[in-house]
């Protein structure tokens, strides 16, 4: 008897195959930005930590998840109303929704590290990912639209942290999106699994994992390797921290899968690159090792360095979602995670349009 996975595999490949290379896409144009200061309080709870975005088509509101590890407030996501017309942006925080665990209880301190969010307007389900809990274990959850009634996805063992396997610390599921047909929930790790190789360095990139999950059954299916670039530049000054990894994934209006790579170097700042990913021809590595496997192919769409787009002061971009048209043109929104750091960071919401 033919398995469901075998029947669905060609559809998956067709879904994620990019119909055009990134160089065929127009370069986006900066439309405007709104910044909110780090430390802003909403009902006694600090606003910030924006780590992923998705749109609820029914309300038109943007759902923004906070990566607070239950240290500044409960596990939560925000409902935002963004208006854009004739070059003017407004942003309202409509509501805050608390996320509960699979028992219905509130998460305890460091019990979750919310990073990805996706919404299915047909079923009304909310999907979200946690990069790690207090023991460093990643998770993916499905809940009702208000964040309650949570169910936990059973992950493949290869993602669970061990001495030589599983995610590296704080490098779990950073990207999450739902396929346009609602069939597949797609998660991406920020960096490689331990068994797949080292994390990115200045000399070499890394291989993050893309995990396909059947959205109806919540059963994991195919897995693919995504090649992350080397760290963009070395750190300067007294600190010596730098990195590069996948910080967001999202489908565009033409069913194309986009991947955000965020590179940071202390003293130098952030460098953001957005790629168009193409899974066609990539090897499904769910069943075994990665030796000889063909990774997902990608092509660079655009990048944002410090001061690009007319002097844009780009921060820690961890979010990407496509919007309804603005002034007759396709548009998308990126947002930054302020790390709850009022000294040097802020919550940044930047809108771009795509010329026809």
From TrEMBL:
It holds the Pfam family Phytase-like. Keywords: Signal. Residues 1-22 form the signal peptide. Residues 46-340 form the Phytase-like domain. InterPro entries: Phytase-like_dom. This is Esterase-like activity of phytase family protein.
């Amino acid at each position: 008897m033919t398995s469901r996975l075998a029947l669905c595999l060609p559809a998956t490949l067709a879904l994620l195959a990019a119909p055009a290379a990134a160089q065929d896409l127009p370069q986006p144009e900066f439309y405007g930005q709104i910044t909110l200061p780090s430390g802003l309080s909403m009902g006694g709870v600090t606003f910030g930590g924006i780590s992923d975005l998705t749109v609820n088509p029914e309300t038109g509101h943007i759902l923004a998840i906070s990566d607070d590890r239950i240290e500044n407030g409960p596990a939560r996501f925000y409902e935002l109303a963004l208006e854009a017309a004739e070059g003017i942006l407004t942003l309202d925080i409509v509501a805050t929704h608390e996320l509960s665990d699979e028992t219905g209880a509130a998460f305890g301190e460091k019990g979750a590290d919310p990073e990805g969010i996706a919404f299915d307007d047909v079923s009304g389900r909310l999907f979200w990912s946690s990069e790690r809990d207090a023991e460093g274990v990643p998770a993916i959850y499905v809940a009702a639209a208000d964040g309650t009634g949570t169910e936990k996805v059973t992950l493949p063992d290869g993602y669970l942290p061990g001495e030589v396997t599983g995610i590296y610390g704080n490098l779990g599921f950073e990207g999450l999106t739902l396929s346009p047909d609602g069939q597949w929930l797609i998660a991406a790790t920020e960096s490689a699994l331990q068994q797949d190789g080292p994390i990115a360095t200045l000399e070499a990139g890394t291989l993050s994992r893309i995990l396909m999950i059947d959205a109806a059954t919540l059963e994991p299916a195919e897995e693919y390797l995504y090649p992350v670039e080397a760290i963009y530049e070395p750190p300067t000054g007294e600190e010596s921290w730098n990195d590069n990894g996948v910080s967001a994934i999202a489908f565009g209006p033409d069913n194309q899968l986009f991947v955000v790579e965020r590179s940071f170097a202390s003293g130098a700042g952030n460098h953001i690159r957005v790629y168009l990913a193409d899974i066609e021809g990539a090897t499904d590595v769910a069943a075994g090792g990665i030796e000889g496997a063909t990774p997902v192919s990608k092509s660079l769409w655009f990048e944002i360095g410090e001061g690009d787009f007319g002097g844009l002061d780009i921060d820690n971009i961890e979010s990407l979602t496509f919007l309804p048209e603005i002034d007759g043109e396709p548009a998308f929104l990126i947002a930054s995670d302020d790390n709850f750091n009022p000294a040097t960071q802020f919550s940044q919401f930047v809108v771009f349009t795509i010329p026809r």
